[in-house]
Design a protein that fits this description.
alpha/beta; seven-stranded mixed β-sheet; two-stranded antiparallel ribbon; 11 helices; 9 strands; about 15% strand; globular
């Protein structure tokens, strides 16, 4: 899907405009609702409108590709859970302070958090890898509020209407943000060289990446995070913000540090770690993404 709005077809413009209009209207209506009711309400709303947005069709296609043995009730439940979580994430990112307060209170689990602390004390940079799981921005907010010099890489959304205000909402949580591309890469490398920490969401299809097995199927995956960790001697740690059962709070999970070896091996390890987390919480991963695409053969 083209990222440049000028490359969109009239039909794509119309679809994106309508989707953004619906979501902005929902946000506006919910702004006056208290946070602890707004978040689950947004989850419920997205569960209702997800079929019209095409989310259920994408989720079902991905599950059929990776878990063909699932029976219909299981598939339906995952469709509803994923839609609910996405709705909650949107409400939280746009909520500002109430969300930051919840993120600040999140408990951190995992010995590799101490690895991050030790690296920062030694002036060593860190590359934190996550996925569209739980609310990935809760981990960023938590670490920023703890004083870590954390920058995040993001990919511009295909929907230009939604992307503009979404990035603005992300920036209120904290900066710097690095947009994927030449300029963003230069800024991110500069941040790493200073001993900073970067967070990268690495579970999207990447043209020019490497085929890495994900749920038993090849998925084009970027090697750049691992390459950066190797080049700048940064610690390489998977981090996740798992949503609690109450739907409002989080646990920040620091998985075991990925040892330096080579980019493919390191990327395989972090992809496998994400898969392990998803298998335990199937409804918290964004199954709506087109993660598995056929590699174009020459």
């Amino acid at each position: 899907m083209p990222r440049d709005p000028s490359q969109l077809t009239k039909r794509q413009h119309a679809q994106y405009f309508a989707t953004n209009l619906i979501l902005r209207g929902v946000f506006g209506c919910l702004n006056c609702v208290p946070y602890d009711k707004r978040v689950p309400l947004m989850g419920a709303v997205l569960r209702k409108i997800s079929p019209a947005l095409g989310y259920h069709r994408r989720i079902r296609n991905n599950l059929k590709h990776t878990f063909p043995e699932l029976v219909e009730p299981e598939v339906t439940k995952i469709c509803h859970d994923v839609s609910d979580n996405i709705g909650r994430v949107l409400a939280e990112i746009y909520a500002g302070q109430p969300f930051w307060t919840r993120a600040k209170a999140a408990q951190i689990q995992g010995d590799s958090f101490q690895t991050l602390i030790d690296a920062q004390k030694a002036g060593r940079p860190a590359v934190l890898i996550t996925g569209h799981f739980g609310n990935y921005d809760a981990a960023r907010s938590k670490l920023l509020q703890m004083g870590f010099p954390l920058g995040a890489l993001y990919r511009r959304m295909a929907n230009p209407y939604f992307n503009e205000h979404y990035v603005q909402a992300m920036e209120t949580t904290g900066k710097p943000l690095f947009e994927q591309g030449k300029r963003g890469m230069i800024e991110m490398v500069r941040h790493l060289r200073k001993g900073g920490v970067i967070a990268i969401v690495s579970d999207l299809h990447t043209y020019g990446g490497e085929e890495i097995e994900f749920f038993g199927k090849p998925a084009m995956t970027s090697l750049v995070p691992a390459e950066l960790a190797l080049k700048y001697n940064a610690v390489f740690i998977p981090v996740y913000a798992l949503r609690d059962q109450n739907g409002l709070d989080f646990k920040i999970i620091f998985a075991d540090e990925i040892p330096h070896s080579d980019p493919v091996t390191m990327t395989q390890a972090v992809t496998q770690d994400l898969e392990t987390q998803i298998r335990q919480h199937m409804g918290q991963w964004f199954w709506v993404h087109k993660r598995w695409k056929v590699k174009k053969r020459k």
